[in-house]
Structure formats: structure tokens, C-alpha cells
Amino acid sequence: MNDDVLYVYEAVTLADLGAIRRCLRETAVSFGCGSEAAGELVTAVNEALANIVRHGYGDVPGRITMGIERSAQTIAITLLDSAPGFDPTQVPSPDTTLPLAERPFGGMGVHMMRTFCDEIEYCRTPDGENELKLLKRFAGPSG
Q: Which residue of 69, 105, 130, 138 shows the fewest CB atoms closer than 10 Å?
């Protein structure tokens, strides 16, 4: 069974992320994703969206397309944006063994995406957009 949902946000700012998180959570749960897995997925996607808005668009409202696809017991989120190219899969993992006081500020968003998703893929589309795909496997409504 495949389900697909597509949302197009024309002028996303950080203030819009709460509504997008709620929408994503509701969709994930309606697809059979349990509360914990849905929360992890929402956290990962929120980090990706915040990075697109802050770093990609430089806090200027920008267009983001979010596709949500369910297949068996996976949910794949595809984010498209037209900000300058950035491949989060190439970001080195932070040293989480350092005490908090010694860690550099920031840099945990990509780490959280990796931690909470089972797969992350990035490419530039032929149209020059960033395409980020986040895949989450889930056991069903209880997990």
C-alpha cells in the first residue's frame, strides 16, 4: 500500500515550523507510525527545515516542498528547496564524547537527523534544487 501527500509552502520562515511539525506528526500517525517513531521523524525533519530556512535561505522566506510517502512500514520525507546547494550527508559527525562546555555551538541538527532516521539521501535535481530524503522505519501504532 502506497500513500503520498505533497505540501508546498511558498514562503517558509522559522515561525511556520510549528504548524509544519503538527501537520507532519498528524500525517505520520495517520499512516500508522507510532508516537515515538513519529516524534523522532518530526524532530529530524524540523532540524532539516530549520537549516534550510536559517542557512539556506538566510532567514528570508523561501519555498519548500515536502513530500510524504508511506510504503509498508516506512515513511519517506522528501524536502525540496531552491537555496544554495548543501549536502548534509557530507557533514562530519560531532564529537559527542566531549563535555558540553567544550563542544562548539551548533552542528547538532544533522547529527539528530542521522540519529532519528534510518536513511538520509541528498542530491541536486536537474532543476538545481536541493533534494533531501529522510527515511524512517516504524513498527506500527505502538512503536
A: 105
The class (CATH top level) of 2-137 is alpha beta
pTM of the predicted model over 0.85:
yes
Task: Show the cell assigned to 101.
Answer: 562546555
- Per-residue pLDDT of the chain (143 residues), as tens digits, is 456 888 899 999 999 999 999 999 999 999 999 999 999 999 999 999 999 999 999 989 999 999 999 988 899 999 999 999 999 888 777 666 667 676 666 666 788 899 999 999 999 999 999 999 999 998 755 44
Q: Report domain extents, the chain.
A: 2-137
User: Is residue 89 left, alpha or beta, with left meaning phi > 0 and alpha meaning psi from -120 to 50?
Assistant: alpha
Report the C-alpha dihedral over residues 111, 41, 121, 81, rounded to 10 degrees. -100
Tell me, what amino acid is at 134? Answer: L
Instruction: Give the cell for residue 31.
Output: 499512516
**Which contiguous run of DSSP H or E holds residue 78?**
strand 74-81
- Look at the block and give the residue holding cell 513498527: 139
Q: Which three cell numbers stand for residue 70?
A: 508511506
